């Protein structure tokens, strides 16, 4: 990305609609009610041949106390300070309001470059507001309609001369998952495991119920108040990503909206927020399921962890607010027992106790994330797998449905991220699920793959004999040849 563009303005002027238009996807939540966006959201924008980072911000509120709107305003001011260009959006149909004049003055003092745009400018009803925008003293306003895509050429013309002065920035890309191994890599059990780099950082999603402390945890990892926090449940609405080096490892961390049970999700915005969090899980490599130490392992926590497992992501369970827990040893023992009982599909996944408020336990969390990432990339040589399979079958042979014995002939690792194995066998459709679980649990224990999702596929080779039919054909040819020799002899 060549530069960063922060979209700023009063609430409900169309900032998120324009953000979605520029990134070409519906990433930011959009609704008719004001104040939907609360955090800073970054995306990769495309406009003609320009590629840049666009930042959607909370609506600028004229508040300076410790209220939620005031904290939102401070985050937006930080975005103004950090952005290369600020796109100041006004509502052409509403005209210039006193708050617009206040924020224009703020941008003149704090922003490096300011572009003024009058949104909702389709039709003659917006003409008066567009003309009025000249009074802000920020040069000629661009006439836009983010909803209908009008004015994009004019925005491109305004950005083009500014873009030439900025250095290139790395574009964040979706993680590699379900990586197929070549025959050589499968045989050797090794290959080029992708290590996190600045271009492709390790993707982490922090998920959990509302008010579990997700944004506080991300702020503690960053060492600054980057994300909006507070005692109110459900402050975060979008899945917000921030990039950093943690322990020398480049990472991109997604803070997601709290996920509640579907029956309790009535508000339209919260429905969009939950789907946004689910999308963050799909784009992550490691998912940190954050629990509240006071009320861990509720039904929704289990569903979130199960979602991460079904998506094939490495999972780390972090128990937050540990600093206020009194009986720590007894509670920790109980947590581990409960974890094994309620999440058997993630048996052995790292479980760490932390306090996002004080920062205690973050080093253990970082080590657990790296351990889970390493296991998620684990590769096992084919020869070692087949020796292991032979031992597993001899200890506990597969059943013989209707008297037909199932033969497990051969095993190899086909994929990583997460580890995926293929077993060639006879009658794969008759092998019970319990025997597959027996093999998966053995893989976890014997090859040190705790907690990570493991994909095991049974594939039938059939009883086809490549020489079947050739015997009869060859016999006929031999008989014919012998007949010719006999006639020559006669």
Question: What's the CATH topology label of the largest domain?
Answer: Rossmann fold
Strand order of the largest sheet: 2-3-1-4-5-6
Using only C-alpha atoms, the radius of gyration works out to 30 Å
Number of helices: 14
Which oligomeric state applies? single chain
Shape: globular
- In the CATH hierarchy, the architecture of the largest domain is 3-Layer(aba) Sandwich
CATH class wording of the largest domain: Alpha Beta
Number of domains: 3
- Work out the number of β strands: 16
Structural class call reads: alpha/beta
Order of helices and strands: EHEEHEHEHEHEHEHEEHEHEHEHHEEHEH
State the separation between the terminal residues, measured CA to CA. 89 Å
Biggest beta sheet attributes: 6 strands, mixed
Percent strand equals 15-25%
Q: Which parts are unreliable, with pLDDT below 50 for 5 consecutive residues or more? A: 28-38, 167-173, 227-239, 258-276, 463-471
Percent range of helical residues? 25-40%
Mean pLDDT value? 78
Let me know the CATH homologous superfamily of the largest domain: P-loop containing nucleotide triphosphate hydrolases
Q: Could you give a quick summary of the protein structure above?
A:
The protein has 490 residues and is of the alpha/beta class.
Describe this structure in words.
The protein is of the alpha/beta class and 490 residues long. The protein has 3 domains: 4-163, Rossmann fold; 195-376, P-loop containing nucleotide triphosphate hydrolases (Rossmann fold, 3-Layer(aba) Sandwich), CATH 3.40.50.300; 382-460, GMP Synthetase, Chain A, domain 3, CATH 3.30.300.20. The protein has 14 helices and 16 strands. It has helices at 15-23, 68-82, 98-110, 127-132, 152-163, 183-188, 214-222, 268-282, 299-310, 328-342, 362-376, 382-395, 433-446, 470-489; strands at 4-9, 41-47, 50-56, 85-91, 114-119, 142-143, 179-180, 202-208, 240-246, 249-255, 286-292, 314-320, 351-353, 408-416, 420-425, 455-460. The strands form 3 sheets. Strands 2-3-1-4-5-6 form a 6-stranded mixed beta sheet, with helices on both faces. Strands 9-10-8-11-12-13 form a 6-stranded mixed beta sheet, sandwiched between helices. Strand 15, helix 13 (433-446) and strand 16 (455-460) form a beta-alpha-beta unit. The N and C termini lie far apart (89 Å). Residues 28-38, 167-173, 227-239, 258-276 and 463-471 have low confidence and may be disordered. Keywords: GTP-binding, Nucleotide-binding, Repeat, Ribosome biogenesis. This is GTPase Der.
């Amino acid at each position: 990305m060549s530069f960063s563009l922060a979209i700023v303005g009063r609430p409900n002027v169309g900032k998120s609609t324009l953000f979605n238009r520029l990134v070409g996807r519906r990433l930011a939540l959009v609704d008719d009610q004001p104040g939907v966006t609360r955090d800073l959201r970054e995306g990769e924008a495309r406009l003609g041949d320009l590629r840049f980072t666009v930042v959607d911000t909370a609506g600028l509120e004229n508040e300076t106390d410790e209220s939620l709107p005031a904290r939102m305003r401070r985050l937006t001011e930080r975005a103004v300070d950090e952005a290369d260009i600020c796109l100041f959006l006004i509502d052409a149909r509403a005209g210039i309001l006193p708050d617009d004049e206040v924020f224009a003055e703020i941008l003149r003092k704090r922003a490096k470059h300011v572009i003024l745009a009058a949104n909702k400018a389709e039709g003659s009803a917006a003409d008066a507001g567009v003309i009025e925008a000249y009074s802000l003293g920020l040069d000629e306003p661009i006439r836009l309609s983010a909803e209908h895509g009008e004015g994009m050429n004019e925005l491109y013309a305004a950005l083009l001369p500014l873009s030439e002065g900025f250095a290139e920035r790395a574009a964040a890309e979706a993680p590699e998952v379900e990586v197929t191994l070549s025959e050589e890599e499968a045989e050797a059990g090794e290959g080029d495991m992708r290590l996190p780099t600045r271009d492709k950082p390790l993707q982490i999603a922090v998920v959990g119920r509302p008010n579990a402390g997700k944004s506080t945890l991300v702020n503690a990892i960053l060492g600054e108040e980057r994300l909006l926090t507070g005692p109110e449940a459900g402050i975060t609405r979008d899945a917000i990503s921030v990039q950093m080096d943690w322990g020398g490892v480049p990472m991109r961390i997604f803070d997601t909206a709290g996920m509640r049970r579907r029956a309790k999700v009535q508000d339209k915005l919260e429905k969009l927020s939950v789907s946004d969090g689910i999308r963050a899980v799909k784009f992550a490599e490691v998912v940190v399921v954050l629990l509240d130490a006071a009320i861990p392992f509720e039904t929704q926590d289990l569903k979130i962890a199960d979602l991460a497992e079904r998506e094939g992501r490495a999972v780390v369970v972090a128990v937050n607010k540990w600093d206020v827990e009194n009986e720590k040893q007894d509670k920790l023992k109980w947590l581990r027992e409960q974890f094994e009982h309620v999440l058997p599909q993630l048996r052995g996944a790292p479980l760490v106790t932390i306090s996002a408020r004080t920062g205690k336990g973050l080093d253990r969390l970082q080590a657990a994330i790296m351990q889970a990432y390493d296991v998620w990339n684990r590769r096992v040589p084919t020869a070692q797998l087949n020796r292991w399979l032979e031992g597993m079958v001899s200890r506990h042979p597969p059943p013989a449905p209707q008297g037909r014995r199932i033969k497990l002939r051969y095993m190899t690792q086909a994929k990583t991220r997460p580890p995926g194995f293929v077993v060639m066998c006879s009658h794969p459709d008759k092998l019970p699920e319990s025997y597959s679980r027996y093999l998966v649990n053995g893989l976890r224990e014997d090859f040190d793959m705790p907690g990570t999702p493991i994909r095991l596929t049974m594939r039938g080779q059939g009883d086809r004999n490549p020489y079947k039919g050739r015997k009869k054909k060859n016999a006929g040819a031999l008989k014919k040849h012998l007949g010719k020799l006999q006639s020559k002899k006669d």
